[in-house]
Amino acid sequence: MVEQSEVTVIGETILVTGSLRGDENLTVLGRVEGQVNLSQTLLVAEGGIVKAEVAVHNAVVSGIVVGNVTAADCVHITATGKVLGDVRGKRVILDTGGRINGAIEAGSAKRAEDRSSQRNAQSLQNHNVSVVPTSLMARRQLSQQAARSNLHGVSDSPQESDPHQRAAQEAMAMAVKKKVAGKKRG
């Protein structure tokens, strides 16, 4: 079994072409072209570029993705993130400043996969863009967290935050440490 803290980093000067499959977190600082299939989290860091069809458990986009992104749980486009393609997941978070040029489908991951082939054909004819303001999404998340907290005794403290956010933060921290260590050596 893979630990949450395991992460593979594709460095700033690296170009990977082909099909990537794995059971660990992946941070892209450089460039990936082809297909990405992960059972964990994909983090496209600011400056990272992914030109691929993406199927992952969670995706955090701070760089650029050209292609469709499907997540079993959550797709989070940060303020610096851009997706040129359709976005599907149980949850879709779009921070102020983040951009999506394509269809957005949030809800059941299975339902999203079932409709995927239909949407791909339609999106070639016309792009439908739906954006929910971050403030509205934040209110929804807070009310959902409060409801879970009341029903299940779940704490909303920072130590027990969303697992995809923790994985993304850990992946980014490891990438920064590797980058700093590499600069000290050079």
Topology:
Layout lengths: L6 E4 L4 E8 L2 E4 L2 E8 L2 E4 L4 E13 L2 E3 L2 E9 L4 E3 L2 E8 L4 E2 L3 E3 L2 H17 L8 H19 L10 H23 L1
Parallel strand pairs: 1-3, 2-4, 3-5, 4-6, 5-6, 6-7, 6-8, 7-9, 8-10, 9-11, 10-12
Describe this structure in words.
32% of the residues lie in helices and 37% in strands. The protein is globular, with a radius of gyration of 17 Å. The longest helix has 23 residues, at 163-185. By secondary structure, the protein is α/β, with parallel strands linked by helices.
As a percent range, the share of helical residues equals 25-40%
Strand content: 35-45%
Q: Determine Rg (CA atoms, Å).
A: 17 Å
Mean pLDDT reading? 75
Report the strand count. Answer: 12
Structural class: alpha/beta
Largest sheet: 12 strands, parallel
Q: Provide the low-confidence segments as ranges.
A: 119-136, 149-160
Spell the H/E element sequence.
Answer: EEEEEEEEEEEEHHH
Distance between the ends: 35 Å
Shape: globular
What's the number of helices?
3
Short descriptors:
186 residues; alpha/beta; 12-stranded parallel beta sheet
Task: Write a brief structural summary.
The chain starts with 6 loop residues before the first strand and ends with a helix.
